Model the fold of this input.
Amino acid sequence: MIDGLISIVILLAILVALVVIHELGHFVAARRAGVRVHEFGIGFPPRAFIFHRGKETLWTLNWLPIGGFVRLESEEGESADPRAFVNARLRTRILILLAGVAMNAILAWLIFTAIAWFGDPIVEARIRSVGEGSPAAVAGIVGDRVTGTDAEGEPVYDESGDTIVAIDGMRFPFFDHLETLAGSTPQGAALRAKAGETVVLTLRRADGSLTEVSATLRPPDQLEKGALGVTFAALPLGDDLQRGPLEAAAVGLERTLDAATLILRGVGELIGNLGDPQVAGPVGMVASVGALRAEWPPVFLLWFIGLLSANLAVINLLPFPPMDGGRIAMALAIRAAGGRITPALERGVYLTGFLILMGLLVWITIFDVRRLGGG
Done:
């Protein structure tokens, strides 16, 4: 229970930080555009206290730790204040709305860049068994030794097998092979892609020493036996990979774009499979934080924060009210309709969208609980 509470607190702290950074983008863009900002709130009301009174903006801390907000002058409807949000030019309003999305995207890029720069986890592959007469056996590669049998008569192995560190000098960053890791090994996929070729394998022996061996892989028509002819026992993490700042920035950008694509696919799968949603809600996210804390190095939690920041950017960009993308779509619709959409209708659209989102969140949470309970 204590671990669960710690995971909840950590997740809430992460989400509040990400939303506050998002709202800071709105705040800075609004102030630069001359739009009046009444309040910058951390958390949601009721208000706990005011920790700073600016010239025109209150900085407040609120009791509900589920995000944050920026309260602009007249965000919808009409206002006589020339500095009201609704009286700003359409382009200005769109830029203010997009500023929050940009902040979360930039934060995700910075996090992914820092990981690629200072310590990118590398996944290796320890060999369980080597097929007789296989390319691995010919190259002198060894697998784990059988030390006995268990109660069911299955063989018990030690951890003395060779570990593949690199193939033709190529190492395998964990965060670049997430989809492959879900079903197989990146080393296996790389070997199959080189079927029929001679490759240089960098191996870590059981005593920790590194060596290189050459192996001629089986041709494509024999891949049912495996290109190298081995089975893998585990995928341990090897030494971290450090890159130069420019290369790390490029890797960070690529991973940010990959995260956005992954999130969009997740949204598409959610819409196409509402009867059994395969996405995580709040309960699933708490479970993920708990697993990352207990089983993985801290860099994995940092990567998770970057993924959530990219998630927040993409989700807010969708043209669905009351997301920022939905507000942009509404502003464009009002312009196209020549102002014939009333403030009451605009607020009704936002309220309807909010209720749909809350209902969807509850629906996903039900499946989160069922999965955690084995149902």
Q: What stands out?
A: The longest helix spans residues 2-32. Residues 2-119+250-372 form one domain. The CA atoms of residues 321 and 356 lie 10 Å apart.
